[in-house]
Amino acid sequence: MSLTVGCIGCGNMGGAILAGLARNGGYALCGYNRSPERMTPLQKLNVKSMPNALAVAQASDILIIAVKPYQVESVLRDLHPVLNKEKVLVSIAAGITLQRLTSAVQNACPVVRCMPNTPALVGKGVFALCFEDSSISASQQSGVRHLFDTLGTCVELPENKFTAFSALIGAGPAYVFAMMQGLVQAGVTLGFQQREARQMVTSLFGGCSEMAQCDAKPLMQLRDDVCSPAGLTIAGVNVLDRAGLTGLLVDAVLAAEQRGREMEKS
Ligand SMILES: NC(=O)c1ccc[n+]([C@@H]2O[C@H](COP(=O)([O-])OP(=O)(O)OC[C@H]3O[C@@H](n4cnc5c(N)ncnc54)[C@H](OP(=O)(O)O)[C@@H]3O)[C@@H](O)[C@H]2O)c1
Questions:
Q1: Positions in the chain short of pLDDT 70
Q2: Probe ligand 1: pick from 10, 12, 72, 74, max atoms within 8 Å of CB?
Q3: Which of 10, 153, 209, 241 is an S-S bond match for 31, by CB 3.0 to 4.6 Å?
Q4: pTM beyond cutoff 0.85
Q5: CATH number of the domain within which 216 lies
């Protein structure tokens, strides 16, 4: 019998996770969202719309909580009567620690922390998973791992690496979109239509990403392979090197990580 996966809070991220699982098949799916209209597109994908959060928790083997971080603990406290050790709770809420989650459910079930990034919205997310709650069984752990493997790329991390993950991969789309914007702007400057430039640049990122995944060569080597002696690429690359693009990216991620640590303390 297939596992039932339920989601409380079916907004952008919760809805995307349920939709991704529905498209891939293999699970019975259910969800509850405060405003019921968010459930309509999911129902068309055979996600069962439940009358309340308690009903989702009761029906689910793997229960995903995807409300805003400030709402998580109050929602979880009400679920206690139907939680048990056979169920796993997965929280995708940014910044809510395992300790706060386990205390909100009064240790009634094992808890996993998960951090997605926005490409999860199109089925290409990177998910960090933390399995440091020792009450989780091996089969529950592999069940959760399998679920997120079907949705994108998964990495298992200790909780103390979640801020670093957020600074690099959670914030990552902002860095990548900023680079895309610069290239699209350059394309428009050179006379391409905005739409045309955007299509070419996004395909450029897709193709390079695929190459970097398939080819074990160092990234610098892949870069140098494009630079013919006295050619046009090296002229452009020299400008990037003089401006210190690589160092800027490192500094951006370090600044984000530092801000993340400050936010955790406040
Ligand atoms: N979006 C991202 O890129 C991203 C990345 C990493 C982590 N996350 C985490 O994902 C979680 C959800 O973020 P989101 O961007 O998907 O937010 P969102 O689009 O606002 O989704 C949250 C949903 O929860 C619903 N909700 C609120 N209280 C509820 C309750 N008591 N019972 C049932 N549903 C309830 C909201 O319903 P209404 O429609 O009535 O408001 C809303 O549809 C957050 O904890 C966030 O930290 C998001």
A1: 1
A2: 12
A3: 10
A4: yes
A5: 1.10.3730.10
